[in-house]
Amino acid sequence: MGSYLFRRLLNLIPILIGISFLSFVLINLSPSDPAEVAVRVNEVTPTEEVLAETRAKLGLDKPFLTRYVAWLNNSLHGDFGNRYVDDKPVLGEIQKALPATLVLAGAALCLTLVCSLSAGIVCALYEGTFLDRLIRGGVFLGTAMPSFWAGLLLMWLFAVKLDLVPTSGMDGPSSVLLPAVTLSLAYIATYTRLIRANMIQNKQENYILYARVRGLPERSITRHMFKNSLQASLTALGMSLPKLIAGTFVVESIFAWPGIGRLCVAAIFNRDFPVIQAYVLIMAVLFVVGNVLVDILSAAVDPRLRKEF
């Protein structure tokens, strides 16, 4: 296990370097001049003298690789530069917005796990019945409905018509309910289908037949069947955790949730390149690290996976 862990962490280094390079390159491929954007966003006339001074201040007058190395070194020390809008440190703004996103993603994750596990197990145990078809119909509906449309419908029904929860903002526990439900709908549908399919597949395995022949109680058989069906779901969960955080920008924009996704959307409209760079880098690193952690956890559960790497 130690050798496997060392190899995985060693392979992580070039991937992270490549991600940081792409994050830096993508912003530099923008047709807009960062110096002019930084000047115009503060309502200053972009004269040649002002642009030259701004380029020197932002380090844009240096060679590309020099700027990349400096940006990477600063990023490793937590310095992502300052915003163009108000010249505040990008890291400070991200730290302010991140807790709200984590609250929303955590609530959505809890809803996803509870609903998908329950629905997936029920569908597998009652395969082919009316209850199975009914749940799967709801699952397909949740998959097909875009999150922004589902959010607007939920807001119209529960916030506007029934006046049960706030329409927007982060104001108490009730305000997280609609955004969390909206964010979790697609994940509930995905994991319900995944758990159902894996449990039905395991239901046909010989060990289930042998367990019934031995006279084991059905509850014990279901528990073993469920445990052996979690491998694929565990792998998918490792990718869903970063997606829950990175994919909140649509929901946060609809419900005016003061999270990191809404911060990035505002930065895109303002062409605030330092914020966009930091957001892309952090989210990409989350995806890679989440994937590696799931691989390590899967290898710890199943020793056969260590030999395949």
From TrEMBL:
Residues 98-294 form the ABC transmembrane type-1 domain. The chain crosses the membrane at residues 9-27, 102-126, 138-156, 176-194, 244-269, 275-297. Keywords: Cell membrane, Membrane, Transmembrane, Transmembrane helix, Transport. One of its GO terms (cellular component) is plasma membrane. It is found in: Cell membrane. GO terms for biological process: transmembrane transport. PANTHER family: DIPEPTIDE TRANSPORT SYSTEM PERMEASE PROTEIN DPPB-RELATED. This is Nickel ABC transporter, permease subunit NikB. It comes from Bilophila wadsworthia (strain 3_1_6). The lineage of its organism: Bacteria, Pseudomonadati, Thermodesulfobacteriota, Desulfovibrionia, Desulfovibrionales.
